[in-house]
Amino acid sequence: xxxxxxxxxxxxxxxxxxxxxxxxxxxxxxxxxxxxxxxxxxxxxxxxxxxxxxxxxxxxxxxxxxxxxxxxxxxxxxxxxxxxxxxxxxxxxxxxxxxxxxxxxxxxxxxxxxxxxxxxxxxxxxxxxxxxxxxxxxxxxxxxxxxxxxxxxxxxxxxxxxxxxxxxxxxxxxxxxxxxxxxxxxxxxxxxxxxxxxxxxxxxxxxxxxxxxxxxxxxxxxxxxxxxxxxxxxxxxxxxxxxxxxxxxxxxxxxxxxxxxxxxx
Amino acid sequence: xxxxxxxxxxxxxxxxxxxxxxxxxxxxxxxxxxxxxxxxxxxxxxxxxxxxxxxxxxxxxxxxxxxxxxxxxxxxxxxxxxxxxxxxxxxxxxxxxxxxxxxxxxxxxxxxxxxxxxxxxxxxxxxxxxxxxxxxxxxxxxxxxxxxxxxxxxxxxxxxxxxxxxxxxxxxxxxxxxxxxxxxxxxxxxxxxxxxxxxxxxxxxxxxxxxxxxxxxxxxxxxxxxxxxxxxxxxxxxxxxxxxxxxxxxxxxxxxxxxxxxxxxxxxxxxxxxxxxxxxxxxxxxxxxxxxxxxxxxxxxxxxxxxxxxxxxxxxxxxxxxxxxxxxxxxxxx
Lengths: 265, 334
What we know:
The complex is a heterodimer. By secondary structure, chain A is mainly alpha-helical. In chain A, about 75% of the residues lie in helices and about 0% in strands. Chain A has one domain (about 20-260). The longest helix of chain A is centred in the middle third of the chain and has 31 residues, at about 75-105. The model of chain A is unreliable at about 1-5 (pLDDT under 50). By secondary structure, chain B is an alpha/beta fold. The longest helix of chain B is centred in the middle third of the chain and has 16 residues, at about 190-205. The radius of gyration of chain B is 24 Å and the shape is elongated. The two termini of chain B are about 45 Å apart. Residues about 1-10 of chain B have low confidence and may be disordered. The chains are: A mainly alpha, B alpha/beta. The interface of A and B includes residues 4, 16, 27, 31 and 265 of A.
C-alpha cells in the first residue's frame, strides 16, 4: 500500500500545479513531431513524395520552358515548388490527418483537460509542423544541392517569410477540415486537395504562363501564391509582397474559420 | 479569479464548507449538428441536475445510457459550457478554467482519449510533463500492471489494458478531483480488481472522486454517495446503505412451488398484502417484493405445510441498487 503514497495528491503541497506554459507547448511540439516522424505513411507523404517530385522534375523536360525563361537550371526552377509541396504535405495533409484521428479517438478532448489546454494543443501542433518543414527544407536542400542547386543565403532568407505564411495558411486549412468532418473524410479531402494543389495549384508548376485569367486565379490560391513567392525569393531574390499578402489573407481567413467551426469531439 | 454572480449564489450557505464539486440546477441543450435535426430545435441532455461531491468520497452518478451522466461530467470538467445553472469545481468555474485548475483535476474519459500509435509509458511520461510535480510514472505503471504490456502500442491493447492506461493518465498529475466516466467499462475481472483497489486508495488519500456508471454493482462497491439520474434529472440520491434500506425493509422473495396462476390474495391474508407485489416469473415460479418480514414468511410456510408442498427453490434477498433502479425506471416510464 505504501507504493501508492507518492502517487497521490498532497493537499498541503503548494508547489503542485501546471508546468510552465512554454514547457508544455514545447513538450507537445516534440510529442507531435515524433508521432509524425514515426508514422510510415506520414514519412512517405513528408519525405518520399517531395523527393520523387524533385527527381521527376530534375530528370524530365517538364520545366524546361520556365528554366529557359529564368535562365537557370531545371533543379533551380523545381526546388521552390518542391518546398511549397513540403509545406502542403506537412501542414495540410500530415497535420490534418493526424488531427482528424486525434479528434475521432478523443485525444483532443483528453489533452485539452490537462494543463496543456486547447490553446497549448494547437500551438504544439503548429510547432511540430514548423519543425518538420525545417527538417524537410534541410533534406530537400541537401538533395537539391547534390543535383546542383545553390540558392545562396539571400535566396534562403527570402524564402522564409513566404514559407512561414504558407505553413500558417495550410495548417489552418488542415485544422478546419479535421475539425469539421469525420476522420476518414478528412483523409480523403486533404489527400485530394494535396494532389490537386500540387498538380495544378501553382506550387510545383509555375502558373504564370496560363492563358487568360488563369495565372491570376491560380496565384490567388494559397498553393499558387506560395509557389510564386518562393520562386520570386529564391530565383529572383525578391520578396513578392502581393503573393505574401495573398498568403496572409488566406491564413487569417482560414484561421478564423477554423476557430469558429472547429469541433473538439 | 473571481466569478461574482456564481459565487454569490453559493455564499447563501455560509455554514457549509464548499465541496470539491458543486453543481446546482444544471441544464445543457445541444443544437443538433445536421440541418435536418436543427429544425427540431435543441436537444436537452441535462435538465436540472444538482449534486455535490466531497473530498475523500466517491460520488457516483448512476443512470441508464442517455440519462445525462456524461454531459453532466463534461460541464463539470469544463469541456462543455452549461446552458444554465451553477458549476463550481474547487471553487472555480470550470468553463473558464486555466491551467492551474486543470492541473488539480484528473479526467478519465469514456472513450479513453488516448493517442493510438504510441506505447503506454511514453504517453504517460508526456502527460506527466504537463505538471510541475507529477506522480512517479514508474510507480504508477507498476501499480497498475502497465509494465506487463508496455511493448505494445495503445491501438493493440485490450479494452481493459487501455482503461488502465487511461486511469494512469488521469492520476499522473496527482489530482485533487478525479473524474471517471464508466471506469469499469470493458474491464476483465483482474483489471477490475486492480482499478477498484486503486480508486479506493485514491479516495482514502483525500481525493474527491466523481464517477458515472450504469452498473449497480460498481456503485454499490465503490460509492459513498449515489445520485440516480434519469432523463437529465435527479430522481434519487443518498448514501448507498440509506438507499438500500429506504422504503422500510424492502426485500425480494423468489420461490418455486409448481402451483401455477396464483394471485397475492391466494397467498396472504388481507392485513399482510400492503405494498407487496407478486409476479409469476415462469409457471409456478414467483417473485414477491416489498416490505417482507417474518409474519409474511410464517404465513407462506404454514400454507405450504398445510398443502404438503416443499418449494423446489426458495430465496430471500435484500433489495439491491438494481431493484431500486428498476423501480425508478418503471415509475418514470409510466
